[in-house]
């Protein structure tokens, strides 16, 4: 399959020789922007509405950025929802973006995580309703979709968001921080749940496509049985099921097939954070640490970073500065509070 060529078929320095076609000159080794080779679609249900939705990804020109397009809405000028930190309007259960006209799209985070991991900069993403399909509750189906579409390197430099100063937010037992780093994005995440099947879990890693693919992409979203029941009673989470979430009842995993990774819960939280941090549409150079941090907290953290112009800088970077860790540069730990039982 042609999509297996993850890093595009042009060497990174190719654009430098391309001056006769009015293409900007880019220094050898500079990280270049990427889009996909061909349009591609998937269909699934929205986790909150329970309604089917089709997502179609289209290649886009350099410097377009990532744009959701609500193709079910009539007014053409009001359909586009560019991905930016400021357009995140709701991060309670999932990440929702809205434009000035009020058009919304929610549950974007797992798709965003896959885009961050692959370093896709430019896409127009058609969606025919207010929710991105939940698929299996992980980022793996989106990773597969992007793999099938293939990637193209574009003759324009990527610009990374470099963290220059520590930024920290606190909310009771929850905290999240960003620290400067020389290269790449490293992530550490800790969770601590009363449910004994989850317990205390942590993971730390340097983000790369291979780490994401091997250690994170398949981690599914999860919920506690009582929360799921409460949501269903309130008419929310209507598309949620054991097909697209891990559901836990104290020390019992209700999914018949159990977990995909021993620390699937914290891996999923880290996956969510990767998507949340990519809402700027730029690769981030820094160190992130989250303790029980939600989508909403991650968005507040990104807003706090961007609100201080001395805390960050946009810069043209080399592939090396974006960091490509070895595939095994991943650690996870799980202290279960009781032996986990599978669903009877
Ligand atoms: Zn998630």
UniProtKB/TrEMBL annotation:
<keyword id="KW-0378">Hydrolase</keyword>
<comment type="function">
    <text>Catalyzes the hydrolysis of UDP-3-O-myristoyl-N-acetylglucosamine to form UDP-3-O-myristoylglucosamine and acetate, the committed step in lipid A biosynthesis.</text>
</comment>
<dbReference type="InterPro" id="IPR004463">
    <property type="entry name" value="UDP-acyl_GlcNac_deAcase"/>
</dbReference>
<dbReference type="InterPro" id="IPR011334">
    <property type="entry name" value="UDP-acyl_GlcNac_deAcase_C"/>
</dbReference>
<dbReference type="GO" id="GO:0016020">
    <property type="term" value="C:membrane"/>
</dbReference>
<dbReference type="GO" id="GO:0046872">
    <property type="term" value="F:metal ion binding"/>
</dbReference>
<dbReference type="GO" id="GO:0103117">
    <property type="term" value="F:UDP-3-O-acyl-N-acetylglucosamine deacetylase activity"/>
</dbReference>
<dbReference type="GO" id="GO:0009245">
    <property type="term" value="P:lipid A biosynthetic process"/>
</dbReference>
<keyword id="KW-0479">Metal-binding</keyword>
<protein>
    <recommendedName>
        <fullName>UDP-3-O-acyl-N-acetylglucosamine deacetylase</fullName>
        <ecNumber>3.5.1.108</ecNumber>
    </recommendedName>
</protein>
<dbReference type="InterPro" id="IPR015870">
    <property type="entry name" value="UDP-acyl_N-AcGlcN_deAcase_N"/>
</dbReference>
<feature type="region of interest" description="Disordered">
    <location>
        <begin position="1"/>
        <end position="20"/>
    </location>
</feature>
<feature type="binding site">
    <location>
        <position position="268"/>
    </location>
    <ligand>
        <name>Zn(2+)</name>
    </ligand>
</feature>
<dbReference type="Pfam" id="PF03331">
    <property type="entry name" value="LpxC"/>
</dbReference>
<feature type="active site" description="Proton donor">
    <location>
        <position position="295"/>
    </location>
</feature>
<feature type="binding site">
    <location>
        <position position="272"/>
    </location>
    <ligand>
        <name>Zn(2+)</name>
    </ligand>
</feature>
<keyword id="KW-0441">Lipid A biosynthesis</keyword>
<dbReference type="InterPro" id="IPR020568">
    <property type="entry name" value="Ribosomal_Su5_D2-typ_SF"/>
</dbReference>
<comment type="pathway">
    <text>Glycolipid biosynthesis; lipid IV(A) biosynthesis; lipid IV(A) from (3R)-3-hydroxytetradecanoyl-[acyl-carrier-protein] and UDP-N-acetyl-alpha-D-glucosamine: step 2/6.</text>
</comment>
<keyword id="KW-0862">Zinc</keyword>
<feature type="binding site">
    <location>
        <position position="110"/>
    </location>
    <ligand>
        <name>Zn(2+)</name>
    </ligand>
</feature>
<comment type="similarity">
    <text>Belongs to the LpxC family.</text>
</comment>
<keyword id="KW-0443">Lipid metabolism</keyword>
<keyword id="KW-0444">Lipid biosynthesis</keyword>
């Amino acid at each position: 399959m042609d999509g297996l060529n993850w890093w595009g078929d042009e060497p990174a320095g190719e654009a430098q020789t391309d001056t006769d076609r009015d293409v900007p000159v880019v220094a050898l080794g500079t990280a270049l922007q990427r889009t996909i080779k061909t349009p591609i679609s998937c269909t699934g249900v929205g986790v909150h509405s329970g309604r089917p939705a089709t997502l179609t990804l289209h290649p886009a020109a350099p410097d377009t950025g990532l744009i959701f397009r609500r193709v079910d809405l009539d007014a053409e000028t009001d359909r586009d929802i560019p991905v930016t930190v400021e357009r995140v309007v709701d991060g309670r259960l999932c990440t929702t973006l809205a434009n000035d006209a009020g058009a919304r799209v929610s549950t974007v985070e797992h798709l965003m995580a896959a885009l961050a991991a692959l370093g896709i900069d430019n896409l127009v993403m058609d969606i025919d309703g207010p929710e991105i399909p939940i698929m299996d509750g992980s980022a793996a189906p989106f990773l597969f979709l992007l793999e099938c579409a293939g990637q193209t390197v574009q003759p324009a430099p990527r610009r990374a968001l470099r963290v220059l100063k520590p930024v920290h937010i606190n909310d009771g037992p929850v905290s999240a921080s960003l620290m400067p780093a020389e290269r790449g994005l490293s992530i550490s995440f800790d969770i601590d749940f009363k449910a004994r099947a989850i317990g205390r879990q942590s993971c730390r890693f340097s983000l790369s496509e291979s780490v994401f693919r091997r250690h994170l992409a398949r981690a599914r979203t999860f919920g506690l049985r009582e929360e799921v029941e409460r949501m269903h009673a309130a008419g929310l989470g209507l598309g949620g099921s054991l097909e697209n979430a891990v559901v836990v009842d104290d020390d019992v995993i209700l999914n018949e097939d159990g977990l995909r990774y021993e620390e699937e819960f914290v891996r999923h939280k880290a996956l969510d954070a990767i998507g949340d941090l990519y809402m700027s549409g730029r690769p981030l150079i820094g160190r992130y640490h989250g303790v029980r941090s939600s989508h909403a907290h991650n968005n507040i953290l990104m807003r706090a970073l961007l609100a201080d112009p001395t805390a960050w800088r946009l810069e043209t970077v080399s592939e090396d500065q974006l960091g490509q860790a070895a595939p095994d540069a991943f650690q996870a730990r799980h202290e279960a509070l009781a032996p986990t039982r599978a669903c009877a």
